[in-house]
């Protein structure tokens, strides 16, 4: 599976690297098409410029940067989410097939729209890929369950052995809770 990831990520990222580079070099080419989406976005989201050309340039930079991160395997889940976020306005602005009157252009735009939906699906899969490791939620639940089980068995055995053993059981339960928090801290630190 590791070889598949090493091949698939650059392939998925290639369209974003190419498009991001092209947009950064010549934002004026796509700014007019982006205007119907860029202006409302810029006016609704604080600190986002309303100038379509600047928004297109920002989108191109995100696609180029996140595409490079995805292609090289650097924080690929975050990179895939960033690309997915940049793909939505790009698709809405550039491939609004429902607005086209000419049947041929409408069909071409619909094809591009569906292609972008397919890319979005691939990016969402890449964002959910945990490299074969259990998810963060699963690891947290497992650590907590294991800690609780160890704590309960220690308390039960402690009840048979007296106060000293009961204190030992409570200590084991506290340690198990710390172990569970440690696993969560490790996992969240690796994201």
Topology:
Layout: H1 2-25, H2 31-44, H3 52-72, H4 76-94, H5 103-128, H6 136-161, H7 163-190
Q: What can you tell me about this protein's structure?
A:
- With 191 residues, the protein is mainly α.
- It has 7 helices and no strands.
- The longest helix has 28 residues.
- The protein is elongated.
- The mean pLDDT is 84.
Structure keywords:
191 residues; mainly alpha
Percent helix: over 70%
- Strand-residue fraction? under 5%
The Rg value, from CA coordinates, equals 25 Å
Distance between the termini: 20 Å
Q: Which structural category fits the helices and strands?
A: mainly alpha
Main sheet characteristics: none
Shape: elongated
Average pLDDT over all residues:
84
Total number of beta strands = 0
| Tally of contiguous helical segments | 7
Order of helices and strands: HHHHHHH
Low-confidence stretches: none
Please provide a brief summary of the model.
This protein has helices at 2-25, 31-44, 52-72, 76-94, 103-128, 136-161, 163-190.
């Amino acid at each position: 599976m590791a070889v598949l990831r090493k091949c698939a990520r650059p392939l998925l990222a290639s369209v974003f690297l190419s498009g991001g580079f092209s947009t950064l070099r010549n934002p004026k080419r796509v700014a007019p098409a982006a205007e119907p989406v860029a202006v409302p976005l810029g006016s609704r989201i604080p600190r986002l410029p309303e100038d379509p050309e600047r928004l297109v340039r920002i989108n191109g930079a995100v696609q180029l940067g996140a595409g490079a991160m995805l292609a090289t395997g650097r924080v690929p889940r975050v990179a895939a989410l960033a690309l997915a976020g940049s793909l939505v306005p790009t698709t809405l602005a550039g491939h609004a097939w429902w607005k086209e009157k000419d049947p041929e252009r409408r069909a071409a735009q619909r094809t591009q729209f569906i292609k972008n939906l397919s890319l979005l699906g691939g990016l969402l899969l890449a964002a959910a890929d945990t490299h074969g490791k259990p998810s963060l939620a699963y690891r947290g639940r497992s650590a907590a369950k294991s800690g609780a089980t160890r704590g309960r068995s220690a308390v039960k055995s402690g009840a048979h052995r007296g106060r000293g053993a009961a204190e030992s059981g409570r200590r084991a339960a506290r340690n198990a809770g710390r172990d569970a928090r440690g696993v969560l801290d490790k996992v969240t630190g690796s994201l």
